[in-house]
Input
Amino acid sequence: MPSATPVAVITGSGRRRVGHVIANHLAICGYRLALHYHGSADEARETVQLWQSRGVDVEAFPADVGREADVDRMFEQVMQRFGRLDALVTTASVWEPTPLESITAEQFLESYQVNTLGTFLCARRAGLLMAEQSEGGSIVTVGDWAIERPYPGYAAYFAAKGAIPTLTRTLAVELAQRNPRVRVNCIHPGPVMFPPGASEQEQQARIQATLVKQANCPETVAHAVQFLLENSFVTGVCLPVDGGRSVFAAELESRGRPKQKPAVN
Output
């Protein structure tokens, strides 16, 4: 008989970025974990071994979230392994600073394939599985605070992330028609984790760009995820977790975001 202990899938959690922190928090909350990775097999393997040593029921699953066959296979494997699905958090993303003049059609489509299509494919597959369960389930998508106040150099990324709120609301409506206990919400993170190699000046700029004068705090996103997973009366909403960055016209905005290395989750 399948265990009643809840199961969470966290895409993009193979690398030690925000998804990893969310997964760790959910493990503490008592979830069994299905980690997702694409190009981070070694890190995912190390993470599984670490959490298994702490008594967490965890397994990692590879997939290209922008490919439907990969996504379907991953969720089939998750169901075979755990027997249920209670939570999905979609942190898998790609972003790369590129001047407007240099963005190619291929780069633009790649951003949509991972950031938008990848979110849709995972959320749709998970949501339909949850709809078949009497307990339903909860999905948390991940957008970006700056889709409302974009800065230069990330046109493809912001365009792709800008679709996430509409996608979230649409799926909340669609899935509730199938099972009222399936909920879909979104988080818009701010500067919750410094990019690799960020200088002290860049780090301070991010801190000063918030109202609360705080940054590099990925645990705040994990706490927001827990709230959205647990509150059964919240669905179809987008929650900024940005320290007030989205309402603060900081000097940083006029200069654009400090340069950072390309990253993939």
